[in-house]
Design a protein that fits this description.
- The chain is of the alpha/beta class and 724 residues long.
- 44% of the residues lie in helices and 12% in strands.
- Strands 1, 2, 5, 6, 7, 8, 9, 10, 11 and 12 form a ten-stranded mixed sheet that branches. A six-stranded parallel sheet has the order 15-14-13-16-17-18, sandwiched between helices. The chain has a two-stranded antiparallel ribbon with strand order 3-4.
- Bound molecules: pyridoxal-5'-phosphate (PLP).
Amino acid sequence: MQVRGHQWPGEEDIHRAVSQLAKRLPPVLEPLASLAYNYLWSWLPDGPELFRDVDPLRFIAAQENPVRLLQEVTPLQLERCAADPAFVDRVQQVASAFQAAMNRPWDPALLPTSPIAFFCAEFGVHKSMPIYSGGLGILAGDIVKEASDMGIPMVGIGLMYRLGYFHQRLDTGGWQHEFWVDTDPDRLPAALVTNGSGKAIKIEVPVWDTTVTAHIWRVDIGRVPLYLLDTHLEENSPIQRWITARLYEGNHDIRLGQYAMMGIGGIRALRRLGLEPSTIHLNEGHAALAAFEKAFQHTENGDPVWKALQKVKQTIVFTTHTPVAAGNETYGTQQFLTAFRNIPERLGIDPEQFLGQARIHPMDTTQHPGMTPLAIRLARSINGVSRRHGDVARHMWQPMYNTKTAAEVPISYVTNGVHLPSWMGKPFRDLLNRYLPEGWVTRAADPATWEPIDDIPAAELWAARVASRRSLIDMVRERSATDRLRRGEDLDYVQAAFRALDPNTLTVGFARRLAAYKRLHLLIHSPGRALALLEDPHPLQLLFAGKAHPMDDGGKRIVQAMFSLKPSPRVRERVAFLEDYDAGLGAALVSGCDVWINLPRPPLEASGTSGMKVVLNGGLNLSVLDGWWAEAYNGRNGWAVSGDVDHDTTAQDTRHAEEFYELMESVVVPLFYSRNEHGIPVLWVERIRASLKSLAPQFVASRMLRDYRDDIYTQNARNSGETP
Ligand SMILES: *Cc1c(COP(=O)(O)O)cnc(C)c1O
């Protein structure tokens, strides 16, 4: 039996918002209103271009948010679009692709009446929805998009941060400054969920010694609704409102308030909406209190607390992303109890017992409580996000288990993957449409799908690469000139970016969080060798981007050190730091760069996903053998720097920097510039083929979701109803 269609709670609220917006539009453009209220447009062919062409400058000004675009575009401009038959035809095309995608059957193994509830502190769906900071959020976004494509019934649970994550500006010395922008949810593709009589639904959540009220927003990601809790209500105090102000709030008391809101509030929201998930997927441990809230529902029905927790455990799965102990934050005992005091009270357990669940060793009262031990104890399935990370996690958490060896610790792994339609740029999408079999996107996780890559003439593959690089360089020229002007640089320096960045030069990208372990500093470990790589006749140009956490001065100093090389003319011309790294800039970089560099200190990279996006655009990875690359590299599909672990980090840095320069100087640069009589780097193109064929099927999100479905979610469906 095939089940199609499904209405999630809040459907009418979305409809109401759509009709409101449609009133502004000429009748032939009305389908744009429903498209605007579902992020599916962002990964349908021609979807982004369609909204852009309504009014290109305004689209950029609106952060590519189509709801804001349609709210603000002038009636005259709308009339112009409506009078253009080609444009109206495109509206029809995208609208019917939208309908087709929404009406595909659900996966028969998992029905929408008992969806997966996916809890995450951040969701990186699109640059216009600023409730994400980086890798974790983008992964969550890719998971919900792929769940929609594959018909895996899922609902997302998170917070509607009014100020989101910070924006970044640098000064002329390369020092990072942060600022936050207020987001008005009424301008986002979001609808407040109301009850039958038009009043916003409220849930109440105990935090500290208070009760915090929250509204629920619904944001549609294809067939997956995100339910986002929002405490920005008049009846809440300023402190209570601040709970959903900023992502990764620095104040730890507020941070714990966020975790209570996500975990307790998330379960209450599901219940209030009448949703009964088959599985609760905790993506990182932030929402681990969800388990206690669920258990509370059982104790209300008379179960003793430990039995209730056992029952709940059958429905909870946990994905850990953090390979460093320090990344798993802990809190002061009193702080933890103050924030969550109602949990032991309501469950009728001793506060000390509750604290014990949040420690590695429950009885060791000197240990600080944290969310990760809680999540580990309360989940029936735990996984890391790459093969190597699975191993690291088993070692890291072995103290919580009574096993003789780390290998016996029951933590598995599902290697991350990326949502192909979101991250493959147009040149490669068009090229592969011509050579891969019909319907290839839905069969991207099958290696056989990619075999015809060998039939693509080298000239065509290269042309797609050149087109991808060219559109990146066009964008970077504009953007780095603006960045430099804003910083107050002299005009000569501003123009250097315009003059010298070149669409035919080997383009190397390094964009990631500016945390010390990402080792951006290895690039300039030997400044002389680094500068030599920028020299004619075979130069490279380096584009880099990334944000340091506001309180991480060490991270900020790394960029400052790069800026100290600014006086060199080659650096002014061939190195650009692009401010305010986000999903939009990320997409441009991963599609345009020829080589993507990743030099984390092993084994601290849990997975990494940006390199997978590069693969889909014919770029090549040069990376430390850590995270995903440790299971991806095969000697022909990119380049590798050793992944050895060494406690002498200075010696390790020197060795890895040496390997990096050696590869760049003797292998990468010569290969890129060695051309046949038609100007094509034939051996480079061979590497692109090897990279696409060996890596694309393994690291797309459809492979990842298949693993979650087969190895984790449906294991649960089989068990549900059983009492252990
Ligand atoms: C893909 C992506 C990431 C993840 O990058 P890694 O450094 O590989 O973990 C982070 N931020 C953005 C904007 C991305 O698109």
